[in-house]
Design a protein that fits this description.
This protein is of the alpha+beta class. Strands 3-4-5-9-8-7-6 form a seven-stranded antiparallel β-sheet, covered by helices on one side. A three-stranded antiparallel β-sheet has the order 1-2-10. A hairpin with a 3-residue loop joins β1 and β2.
Length: 180
């Protein structure tokens, strides 16, 4: 009986310490591959600040805004020959579904400014796609239903997990979203 109590106690302590470590380094279990740097960057030298009606953020200076059309005029796109950043302010903002099954998919959940953020990264497994690497963030607000801001960052040639996270962590919301 004493052995069973000792084993139970050791198991509980191990889970407690694992949970403590888990919360301190900011990684979620799905990020055990170490896809993200888990560091909030405040260094945006050679990056430019973008101001949109609902948010501001930093992007590499060579990303240029493109004109795109969307139903409610609340989507934006910035890009160059290799990278593209899409932003969608709507309840239908993109988030991964079947992509979660990709071999190198990883994700984490953190708080950024006034929102809960789900950040993910994966290599696109379909060989016929122009963009091979994708990172993204979905921002949600606890007090507002059906209000989301999605950002999808893609590259044709390189892993962009760290650059994507740096962009997403730079987001600041300009106005507190209101209930609809």
């Amino acid at each position: 009986m004493k052995i069973l109590i000792k084993i139970t106690l050791i198991t509980l302590i191990t889970f407690f310490l694992a949970g403590l470590t888990f919360s301190q380094n900011g990684r979620k279990l799905d990020d055990e591959k170490g896809c993200f740097n888990n560091q909030e960057s405040t260094e945006y030298k050679d990056w430019k600040k973008v101001k949109l009606p609902k948010l501001t953020f930093y992007i590499p200076k060579d990303l240029i805004e493109s004109e795109i059309s969307c139903i409610d005029r609340s989507c934006y796109e910035f890009g160059n020959d290799d990278l593209i950043l899409g932003i969608d302010v709507s309840s239908a903002a993109f988030h991964p579904s079947y992509e979660k099954e990709f071999a190198n998919y990883c994700e984490k959940f953190i708080r950024i400014d006034k929102a809960e953020a789900w950040i993910w990264y994966y290599d696109v497994e379909q060989t016929d796609r122009e963009y091979k690497y994708r990172s993204g963030a979905l921002f949600t607000f606890n007090n507002i239903k059906n209000y989301k801001i999605g950002m999808t960052f893609s590259s044709k040639s390189k892993n962009i997990a760290e650059i994507g996270e740096k962009i997403f962590r730079s987001v600041k919301f300009r106005n507190k979203p209101r209930r609809r």
